[in-house]
Amino acid sequence: MTFSRGAFWSAAAFATVSAAVSAWRILRNLRLAKSRRRLFLGIDCSTQALKAFLVAAEDLKIVWSTRISFSEDLPHYGTEDGVIRDGLKVTAPTAMFVEALEMALDRMVDEMGVEEISKIQAISASGQQHGSVFWANGAREKLRQSSSEKSLVEILRDAFTIPNGPIWMDSSTAKQCEALEKELGGAQRVADITGSRAYERFTGNQISKAFLDFPDSMNSNCERISLVSSFLSSLLIGDFAPVDISDGSGMNLMDIRSGKWSADMLKAVEKIGNVKENGSLREKLGEEPVESHAFLGRINWYFMERWNFHSDCSIIASSGDNPCSLAGLGLHQPGDVGISLGTSSTLFAIVENPAPSSEEGHILRNPLDPNSFMAMLCFKNGAITRKRIRDQFCNKSWETFAEHLKGSVVGNDRNFGFYFTDAEITPVVNRCGIVRFSKDQNRVLSENETFANPYQEARAVVEWQFLSMRYHSEKLQVRARRVLLAGGASNNREIVQILADIFNAEVFQSKVGPETAAIGAAYRALHGYECCQKRKFIPFDEVVHTDLELICKPNPRNVSIYDEMMVKYGELESTAIKLVSEEKVGTIL
Ligand code: XUL
């Protein structure tokens, strides 16, 4: 076919114009999509940082995110890795959480523009579990204060009975736990009512201790007690907000089956804490816990004035970080086991017929479905412990840590290490100490003696963490068919391979990355919002379709090495605990 010159130019002009028109159409559609998009905000106030993620409802894409590191961005609170340690007592300044939230929202406005903020339809938050906030008398009035001339930190300056609230890392309440189990007639009874035997970090025991430590202020100047999660909801609605049933399961105060405060537990905590006025604890805890998808109200006027949130923006109940991670992973199939490698390591699975144990593990209400339960194990020696080993043996570099994992053999030549650099939750170890067993496991290395090859330290800490997870989850009858992984360490290829091999399971990660608690909070905001619109409960997976990606397959040769190590694991763990508890061996970092 031949073209005349004129025809050629008109064809070329036509092509140019139509290309311009389609580019314009694409841009216009993008702009229209952007202007119509519905946004949901998830906020996660975890141990070391506060993170915020904005998710678009249409495709669940993350449109914006930020991270405020407590120690680096807010150094004036004097925390190390977000916490203040004083022996077994571990706390975090409540005002620091408020300031971090303000900082995150300022960043969101700067980076997204006020117009986008007005498109946020609902917010939910995730909080490090068990941590508590004690509101002083008059705090409710302060929360309702509407002038945005002052920052929230300034408004709430004197709003807390105890400025630094205890957090989940605290293990200073052994006496209160013992007393609680005695009062109730044993550990099994406490577990049957609340889903867990008495645990030191659980809020009820922390509350007894707060009353004993600060009797005057707790008895006469404490208007309300919140969890970190319900504290965030309180800021968002500008009033005291209820606890949700899932995070409420981590308090040793709620009856997990009815989802209500247990009269027996409250009475016992009041007795142990020497609370002056009987019945006052119920008042301080506020209304009964609510379902995790509950609508709590519209956003606080302060947030509209200062950050341009829309007056219709809904606040959905906040929950704990592990329940939110479960939502972020969309975990709902039997055989799916969630593992979160955050500051703590946790393992969780959904169970229909819970059997709370007087020994270890927790049963929580499922944050996605009020009719089922979530089993959970928590290991305190997680990311901070890996980091301590990295700092001592791997030049403070994660690249070197990964090289050491690559440069050492699977099974570590049968060298075992137990790194209790913090008192441990699972298994219970109330002291710190490191125990290393030599190659043939007949000899415990002496104090300060490390493995002959320093490469073996990185491998020993990671193998120990996952062998321990497998050992204790099997005790709870949890067997992983596939592992859904959350948390920062999931980006480390070598660590993930060890996990797959020890559990002999394929490992999946959420396509949106490792920050499943913050994203899970955004998903729960969307879920709660849809339930509220339809005025009925809608199954979570009908609203949120999470996308998983296979990131690692087990290697059968390695699996058999670890299976063999598992046979010895229980016995070595008992010896290690005995040695640490009796202070007979151990190098403290
Ligand atoms: C769970 C627990 C920790 C915290 C960490 O019981 O104590 O995982 O939730 O934020």
Give an account of the 3D structure.
The chain has 589 residues and is an alpha+beta fold. The chain contains 23 helices and 23 strands. Helix 7 packs across helix 13. The longest helix has 32 residues, at 5-36. The structure holds D-xylulose. The site of D-xylulose (XUL) has 15 residues, from helix 16.
Q: Summed up, what is this model?
A:
43% of the residues lie in helices and 19% in strands.
Q: Tell me the major beta sheet.
A: 7 strands, mixed
Global Rg: 26 Å
Number of helices: 23
The proportion of residues forming helix, as a percent range, comes to: 40-55%
Mean pLDDT: 93
Rounded to the nearest angstrom, the distance between the terminal CA atoms is: 82 Å
Number of strands: 23
* Overall 3D form: globular
Structure class: alpha+beta
- Uncertain regions: pLDDT < 50 for 5+ in a row? none
What attributes does this structure have?
589 residues, globular, 7-stranded mixed sheet, alpha+beta
What is this structure's SSE topology?
Elements: H1 5-36, E1 39-45, E2 49-56, E3 62-69, H2 70-73, E4 84-86, E5 89-93, H3 94-112, H4 114-117, E6 120-127, E7 132-135, H5 139-144, H6 152-155, E8 164-166, H7 174-184, H8 187-194, H9 203-213, H10 215-220, E9 224-227, H11 228-237, H12 245-248, E10 254-255, E11 260-261, H13 263-272, H14 280-285, E12 295-298, H15 301-307, E13 314-316, E14 319-320, H16 321-329, E15 336-341, E16 345-351, E17 362-365, E18 373-379, H17 383-393, H18 398-406, E19 416-420, E20 433-437, H19 455-475, E21 482-486, H20 493-503, E22 506-510, H21 516-534, H22 540-543, E23 548-552, H23 556-581
Helix pairs in contact: 7-8, 7-13, 9-13, 16-21, 17-19, 18-19, 19-20, 20-23
The structure holds D-xylulose.
D-xylulose is lined by residues 46-47, 128-130, 168, 201, 250, 320-322, 343-344, 346, 378.
